[in-house]
Amino acid sequence: MKKLNMRELLRKYNLILLLLVFMIISTILSPNFLTIDNFLNLLQQASIPGIVAIGMTTVVLLGGIDLSVGSVLAFAGMVSSMVAMNIGGIGGLLLAFLAGLCVSGVMGLITGLLISRFKLPDFIASLAMMEIGRGAALLTTSGNPVFGLSEEFHEIGGGFLLDKLAYTAIIWIILTVVFALLFKYTIFGRSLFAIGGNYEAAMLSGIKTKRNYTIAYILSGLLSGFAGILTASWMSTGQPTAGNGYELDAIAASVIGGASLSGGKGSVIGTFGGVFLLQIITNIFNLVGLPSYYQRIAKGIIIILALLLNNFVSSEQKKK
Question: What is the pLDDT of residue 79?
Fold first, then answer.
């Protein structure tokens, strides 16, 4: 009975356990880790990849994958930056956001339609959109960053509440709550789990699988585009190389957070924890002054350990 209870606790709280372990390690390595300023800095640094990861989780619940998120982020950031640079005032800010969201939403729509209507594998369709998005981001200014953005534009992604809590962190937290409620209490949210769990059964039960697939990829595109606009705002620069590797971090965060790449399992709250854990790892290496390439090795090891742990817990559940 005791072993059974331990396995149940491990199943429910394995991510919290990982977070605690790495927080203890971080505190031992650097006394500066457990400070309010460092915690708020962690939230800010994790907010942009966290927003992208929410969209990735939406797709992963279906058993899909979206490799285009980093490129969509970059292209939307470039488009919004160019609009903000050429059109001033509040109207310019609104148009910059709308332009960035429009291009990212259309890119997500195309990817979704290629998968749901034309039966292309999600890996191939999103890989193609990844190349198109990155090429388009570089093409807009021949690979040059966009400078000269206004202070008003910078304030949206680079501003702070009470000079402490970044606006991007607040936005990330709000979006996490909104999507957690969406997944749990709406027909669309519950249908994602049903489709990911058994596509044929979901289709036979009357769930509009093609439509929901398309909507999921549109949401992934919109969230990536929104993250791209916030990135350009935060940096006060439209950078065509922004978002490199974000697709891998987003997938990793979803998996660490308990999502299954075969679909039907996952949560946006778990993804929030996964993003935060990856950021803690980055923070540890920054605090102790180790090169960034060690971070990639550490992230890979953490992903493997998280998958092994999830597989172990799942196998024990099946034995019951």
Answer: 96
* pLDDT given at position 7: 60
Q: What is the pTM of this model?
A: 0.92
DSSP code for 193:
H
Mean pLDDT by 10 residues, the chain (320 residues): 54 76 83 84 94 97 95 96 86 92 97 95 96 94 88 89 91 97 95 94 92 96 97 93 91 88 90 91 78 77 73 58
Q: Which residue has the tokens 């949560």?
A: 267
Instruction: Collapse the DSSP code of 142 into the 3-class scheme (helix H, G, I; strand E, B; otherwise coil) and give the result.
Output: coil
- Of 53, 41, 95, nearest to 227 (Cα)? 53
CA–CA distance, 171 with 168 (Å, rounded to integer) = 5
Domain of 111?
46-243
Distances in whole angstroms, Cα of residue 36 to Cα of each of 7, 39, 165, 284? 34, 5, 10, 15
Total of domains in the chain? 1
Instruction: Assign residue 263 a region (left: φ > 0; alpha: ψ between -120 and 50; beta: otherwise).
Output: left
Residue 146 DSSP SS3: strand
Cα 59 from Cα 261, distance rounded (Å): 10
Residue 17: predicted pLDDT: 79
Query: Is residue 317 situated within a structural domain?
Result: no
Helix (H, G, I), strand (E, B) or coil at 279: helix
Does 70 fall in a domain?
yes
CA angle 68, 48, 105 (to 5 degrees): 45
Is residue 255 within 8 A of residue 274, CB to CB? The reply is yes
Q: How far apart (Å, rounded) are the C-alpha atoms in residues 116 and 27?
A: 47
The distance from CA 197 to its chain's CA centroid, rounded to whole angstroms, is 22
CA torsion angle 306 268 49 43 (round to 10): -90
Residues 258, 261, 262: CA angle, nearest 5 degrees: 115
CA 258 to each of CA 50, 68, 177, 267, 303: distance values in angstroms, whole numbers, following the listed order: 15, 22, 17, 7, 11
